[in-house]
Amino acid sequence: MTTAHAAAPLRARASTGLAGRIRIPGDKSISHRALILGAMAVGETVVTGLLEGEDVLRTGAAMAALGAEVTRGDDGVWRIHGVGVGGFAEPGGVLDFGNSGTGVRLAMGAVSTTPIACTFTGDASLCRRPMSRVLDPLGRFGAESMGRAGGRLPLTLRGSANPMPVTYVSPVASAQVKSAILLAGLNAPGRTTVVEREATRDHTERMLRAFGASVSVETHDEGHAVSVEGGADLRAISIAVPGDPSSAAFPLAAALLVPDSDVTVEGVLMNPTRAGLFETLREMGASLDIIDRRDEGGEPIAALRARFSALKGIEVPPERAPSMIDEYPILAVLASFAEGRTVMRGLKELRVKESDRIAAMARGLAACGVKVTELDDGLIVEGNGPGGMPGGATIATEMDHRIAMSFLVAGLAAKTPVTVDDSAFIATSFPGFTELMTGLGGGLVRVNR
Ligand code: S3P
Fold first, then answer.
1. Which has the least CB within 10 A, 79, 122, 141, 389?
2. pLDDT number for residue 449
């Protein structure tokens, strides 16, 4: 979404019997990485199933501005002619990443060991988010940056002319930080290592290997040490992007909450570093079947079938947070319809996502008549049981796609309709969400402001 757009309010009303077999758009994390690694490789990378959401399209445009050839065929297949490691050209203008933290942080890593200057910006949400978490480690490679207070966007980064490999212990559990460092390390001679205390999503590691890079992972007491050998070429590959589990979460959650529903989502990425929500839902008593498990393009995938279920509240283990970090907004909605209390902790990172998701969920659920306690690092939700959420509120979506989708799912099962003030940001990660949910039988209607 650009900074100026017409807000698009959307209302969800109580529905019954959601049914269907669907596919959801491609995984956002893998899509960003396919474009960036394709741009850094030698030869033509071919990508099918790319998520064509705003966030990923911005990354594609940025890679083109850095000299890669990025094209989309009429058949929906994307082709990227890479410039090779260290081959990025200085862009002629500002690189605008819109709403996307992943896009901007990974791109900063990718350019930081090439001696060019790049200016990065984004929308109001992205300009509020902390960038020093990547700028600090990138500085150790010799990159220099100048931005707003706290390293916030807009900022200019000048990549290092003589990069040295780095070993960095990350203070935050963030795949974006890990990935930015690994991408920087590709153009530094020798071994670059990132140590993370908790394992975060590993798509960069998997994809780097597929592109021919030498990547190793060691687990010791302080955590996982992920290393990449710099100075080697990446070789172009073909990538089939699986369905995004973070997007699948919304229709599956709707099926669990709306009476008489039976929905199957096919081709969903089941990488263990992303599948924490599904484990949590089963602990809550959800009827969620994982069928047709198989491997495709180096990632496990499966079909997921969800049916209306009486859920019960649980304590979600805080150490599970990295594997479901984007799913807490929808989990908080599910917890509101569970019997009993759900405790979610260890979620400080949620305060620096597209919005402060702890505050946004606490405010929105309270407005819908749910008893919720906001903790510094999490939420406690007292469930009202199936169909028990009063609803009837208009929710401030705070430029956050997942807040918008979470409350629309809530509205499909609440006693009275729930309205989100702006559904436009849904297009950053889940183009076609409204049509897909309507196709399943969900009552979503546009409303005038
Ligand atoms: C992402 C990592 C996570 C996640 C984001 C996508 C990625 O962010 O919230 O939606 O693709 O690497 P952090 O790395 O900041 O936790």
1. 79
2. 66
pLDDT digits (tens, 9 = 90+) for 104-118: 999 999 999 999 999
CA end-to-end distance (rounded Å), the chain: 19
Q: Write down the H helix ranges in 73-130.
A: 101-111, 124-127
Q: Where in the chain is the domain with CATH 3.65.10.10?
A: 10-26+242-446, 28-240
Q: Are 31 and 50 in contact (CB under 8 A)?
A: yes
Residue nearest to atom 15 of ligand 1 (CA): 174
Pairing of strands 144-148, 117-121: unpaired
CATH architecture, domain 28-240: Alpha-beta prism (3.65)
Catalytic residue among 244, 326, 356, 400: 326
H or E segment to which residue 81 belongs: strand 78-81
Assigned CATH class of 10-26+242-446: alpha beta
User: What span, in angstroms and rounded, lies between the C-alpha atoms of 328 and 402?
Assistant: 9
Contact 37, 70 (CB under 8 A): no
Structure confidence by residue, pLDDT tens digits, 84-101: 999 999 999 999 999 999
Which pTM value belongs to this model? 0.98
3-state secondary structure of 437: helix
Specify the pLDDT at position 390: 98
Q: How far apart are CA 339 and CA 106, in angstroms?
A: 41
State which residues of the chain have pLDDT below 70: 1-4, 449
Ligand 1 center from residue 134 Cα (angstroms): 13
Nearest-CA residue for atom 16 of ligand 1? 174
Whether 326 is catalytic is yes
223-230: strand order across its sheet:
167-169, 190-196, 223-230, 215-220
Other Cβ atoms less than 10 A from the Cβ of 383: the count is 22
